[in-house]
Amino acid sequence: MIYRNWQGTDIPALGFGTYELNNEDAANMVVEAAKIGYRHFDTAQMYHNEEGVGRGLKKSGLARDDYFLTTKVWFDQFQSGDLQTSVMESLRKLDHEFVDLLLLHWPNDDVPLEETIAALNEVKNLGMTRLIGISNFPTALIEQAVSLTNIPLTVNQVEYHPYLDQSKVLESLRERDMLLTAYCPIARGSVMKDPILKDIAAKYGKSPVQVTLRWLLQQDSVMAIPKSGSPKNAAANFDIFDFELSDGDMAAIKGLANPDGRLIDPSFAPEWDKAA
Ligand SMILES: NC(=O)c1ccc[n+]([C@@H]2O[C@H](COP(=O)([O-])OP(=O)(O)OC[C@H]3O[C@@H](n4cnc5c(N)ncnc54)[C@H](OP(=O)(O)O)[C@@H]3O)[C@@H](O)[C@H]2O)c1
């Protein structure tokens, strides 16, 4: 496993995503993922599977100190009071006393960011989470969030894969001693069919998905959370710690980025950074 050390906390850089798994599938897959070796799990209020993820973690037999658990507050819970109550509800569903990382799922310009960040700081001070962060924040909003928080932010979770240039966000996060967690890290499976990734993968005896995940983790400050509902794919996605991509292959994969590469762009999305 590769770890990111953030101010003394070691975080497994490869996590297990759970979006679109229902409670039952999430519980089963978390048990499988734990057997494979995953020690970092990602859920959210909006996934409606916190109960399943929590149940899977208990059933896995892993000690609480041995895994890293993230959940996210949905943006309709960003007013002070609502946020705190929603996190209590998340902890009840997860059947956990605290999570390791709590994220604001998407920016919401209907609620002052100052109010939301203050509530996020409060739940951290109450011990409901060990670390706090943001998700889907472009550079202008990262700057604002960092300026408003009393407690350092650990992570910005954003879409990142070979087809999407995130160099501006990554540079901004590194300057602020923050980490980037890549969601949709394998572009929802579409990297499988990429001829350039196939060629690179063949050289290492790996698949395009494995090469893509390796490419993400070979970048400083980057973590990745591929999702799978299949034990076979989840195991393949974890089998990336026995090879290293050359600088030339790292650059070739970076070159696959294109202006239409973004997959997740809902109507409530913020104004994204333009590609570098
Ligand atoms: N913060 C946010 O706003 C946000 C947004 C989106 C996602 N996320 C998080 O990031 C996680 C990952 O993103 P994602 O689920 O959207 O996309 P993803 O991980 O890029 O792709 C998941 C898709 O790839 C397939 N897949 C997985 N491993 C594979 C393999 N080895 N070979 C072939 N296909 C494979 C999966 O199918 P099978 O299930 O059949 O394996 C699934 O269809 C989510 O689960 C969630 O935790 C966060």
Descriptive keywords:
globular; 16% strand; binds NADP nicotinamide-adenine-dinucleotide phosphate; 38% helix; eight-stranded parallel beta sheet; TIM Barrel; alpha/beta; 10 strands; 276 residues
Q: In summary, what is this structure?
A:
With 276 residues, the protein is an alpha/beta fold.
Q: Gyration radius, to the nearest Å? A: 18 Å
Largest sheet: 8 strands, parallel
Given as residue ranges, the uncertain stretches (5+ residues, pLDDT < 50) are none
The chain-level structural class is: alpha/beta
Average pLDDT score: 98
Strand percentage, roughly? 15-25%
Helix content: 25-40%
Bound compounds, please? NADP nicotinamide-adenine-dinucleotide phosphate
CATH superfamily (homologous) name: NADP-dependent oxidoreductase domain
The succession of helices and strands, N to C, reads EEEHEHEHEHEHEHEHHEHH
Instruction: Using the coordinates above, name the CATH class.
Output: Alpha Beta
Q: Find the CATH topology.
A: TIM Barrel
Distance from first to last alpha carbon: 31 Å
Number of strand elements:
10
Q: Layout of SSEs?
A:
Blueprint: E1 3-6, E2 9-12, E3 16-17, H1 23-36, E4 40-42, H2 50-60, E5 68-73, H3 82-94, E6 99-104, H4 113-125, E7 129-135, H5 139-148, E8 155-159, H6 167-175, E9 179-183, H7 195-204, H8 208-217, E10 222-224, H9 231-238, H10 247-254
Helix pairs in contact: 1-2, 1-9, 2-3, 7-8
The structure holds NADP nicotinamide-adenine-dinucleotide phosphate (NAP).
Describe this structure in words.
Helix 1 packs parallel to helix 2, helix 1 runs parallel beside helix 9 and helix 2 packs across helix 3. The strands form two sheets. An eight-stranded parallel beta sheet has the order 3-4-5-6-7-8-9-10. A two-stranded antiparallel ribbon has the order 1-2. With 276 residues, it is of the alpha/beta class. Helix 5 links the parallel strand 7 and strand 8. The protein has one domain: TIM Barrel. The chain binds NADP nicotinamide-adenine-dinucleotide phosphate (NAP). The site of NADP nicotinamide-adenine-dinucleotide phosphate has 27 residues, from helix 9.
